[in-house]
Amino acid sequence: MRATAPAATGGPAPAVLRPYRVLAIASMSLLIVNIDATALTVALPAIQRSFGASLSSLQWVTDAYVLVISVLLLASGSMGDRLGRRRVFRYGLVVFLLGSVACSLAPSVGTLIAFRMVQAVGGSMLNPNALSIITNTFSDRRERAKALGWWSATYGIALAAGPIVGGALVDGLGWRWVFWINLPIGLAAIALTTRYVPDSRAAHARRIDPAGQLLVMAILGMSTYAIIEAPATGWTSPEILGLLAGTAAALVAFVLVERRVAEPLVEIRFFRSPPFSAAGVSAVLAFLVMGGFLFVNSLYLQDVRRFSAFMTGVALLPATIFIGGLSPVAGRLVNRFGPRLPLVLGGTFSAAGTAVLALVGARSGIGQLVLAYSLLGIGMGFVNPPITTTALSGMPPAQAGVAGGVAAATRQVGTVLGIALLGSLLAEGLRSRLPAALAPLRLGRRALRHLVDLGSGAAQAAAQLRSPHAGAAAAAARVALASSTHAAWWLATGAGIVVAVVAVLTTGRRGMAAARRVFEPH
Length: 522
Hints:
Elements: H1 18-51, H2 55-83, H3 85-104, H4 109-124, H5 127-137, H6 141-172, H7 177-180, H8 182-196, H9 210-233, H10 238-258, H11 274-304, H12 309-315, H13 317-337, H14 340-358, H15 366-392, H16 400-438, H17 445-454, H18 458-462, H19 470-506, H20 509-519
Helix pairs in contact: 1-2, 1-5, 1-6, 1-8, 1-11, 1-12, 2-3, 2-4, 2-9, 2-16, 3-4, 3-5, 3-8, 6-12, 6-13, 9-10, 9-16, 11-15, 11-16, 11-19, 13-15, 14-15, 14-19, 15-16, 16-17, 16-19
């Protein structure tokens, strides 16, 4: 094992430890981004109470960040190849920290959403360039695989620690401290990167594809806005229909443009490979389940079960521990049997977990929740590692980086759609159930409309009404919220089943052979 570039000056560390020092520094970016994302999830009810925010606003607090990441991920990787990965990595840390400080000071939910987008600009520069730094530091194939295993383990640690750390901060100091926790980790990463991480560039950096970038932005932006706002506006309203039509037109234009560009943002021909298409579908659906689960479940635990933010983080441990712990097992299964088995197991267990959640009510036992979270965690632990392997099946080495970047972007797209779709199903259910549940209490039209607009926070708001029926109204709102989650969980169940079916149909020997034929020289 050797490093491909000499380590920067910074002390007489043994040569064998220098690459692992770089790995530890690069992994700090994965830690900071994922702790921030998962900690914020348990802070959503507190943010809703602080600003009196609607359910759609909460969706935008999380989705605005992931949406920007999805749009800029590939371009940020290309920027690192061209300008230097260490430089862009440091820029990303600086912008992410500035966005974090701005989020902690946000005076309204609208400014919080805007500052989350600033955070995301920085976040998009971190992971692709950190992975490139690791890949260039470890030249030996086995050592590189080991390093990437440690990198993946960092994700598991962040996933398990984030909700608990976030819950403790929310309960002890307030939701704004969820963003301040990024500062010490980020500042340490900047200082260590400057001193110890060697710089590198690609021998031939891909050109930035501005037309493709703008069209991706239009596709994801219009579709996400339509899905989130449709419950309030109406699915057949001119605004929503216009956005959906615009999304379809932008998608057609994207395919036409990318087929003509010399170095496109996304190689359309990749999708002629059955395993690559399967990897994209699996990533979108699996992370649709994961993103939607974290969003909806946090609201359920705090607004229906009346858990504290910290106890919400503890309750998520069965899911997060399995996700982190099973990822190495899934990697070994991929190496021995190929991607089909872990993808089938992942889709099946995920579907089983969300099906159990679909049967959970306002007073279901904690054992049912633990079972559901454990099954879902096992499913996600199996499904995540094979996605990249499947995407790269049959790819020529020169295209592996681009294909891996697309696979990473599809994970983000899935998270965007999960929060938008499952959150909108929740909002739709509340808008249909709350008026009927609260009508017998004669709360008045104005109070009823206010509770419906708040959505998941209706139970908290109802408990504070100046009415002798406040307690009954809060209880009715909790029951309505619990019932409204069922449609979201059944959609997630269907997504898990599709992941398993797609894996069976496309990742066997025929699918791999078809992938090789796509990239054979003619």
